[in-house]
Amino acid sequence: MTDQLQHIRKPPRTGKAARSGTQDEIVYAHIFDAILEQRLAPGTKLSEEALGEIFGVSRTIIRRALSRLAHEQVVLLRPVSYTHLRAHETGRNLVCRLLLEKKKNTTSN
To answer: How far apart are CA 80 and CA 101, in angstroms?
Structure first.
């Protein structure tokens, strides 16, 4: 499993992970960018333990990042199992959906 996740820490050219912030935000941004740039394939199992080792952080921080991604419907949380990338959404689809949701939220205010 760690082989599938080895490219997750690739330094981003741009994007959310380029910004500084809390450990939660940095881990979230790296995972989000890896999904967006398709360095993680749809359906990839994301182990809290493996991600914790990759980022050198506790599973609590990993859980917070994955919970945020689940709230944004980027990943599916499976209790007592793994987190899976949503199979039907990859880079371009995800960007389009997020942009449409952002536009909808700004026009409704």
So the answer is: 30
74 neighbors 89 (Cβ within 8 angstroms): yes
- Distance in angstroms (rounded) separating the CA atoms of residues 46 and 40: 10
**Digit-coded pLDDT (tens) for 6-37:** 666 655 445 554 556 889 999 999 999 888 88
Q: How far apart are CA 49 and CA 15, in angstroms?
A: 25
CA torsion sign, 3 to 76 to 14 to 61?
negative
Tokens representing 92?
């371009």
What is the pTM (predicted TM-score) of this model?
A: 0.64
Cα 1 to Cα 51: distance, rounded to the nearest angstrom? 10
Q: State how far the Cα of 87 lies from the Cα of 24, in Å rounded to an integer.
A: 24
To which H or E segment does residue 23 belong?
Answer: helix 23-36
CA distance 36 to 98: 11
- DSSP conformation class of 13: S
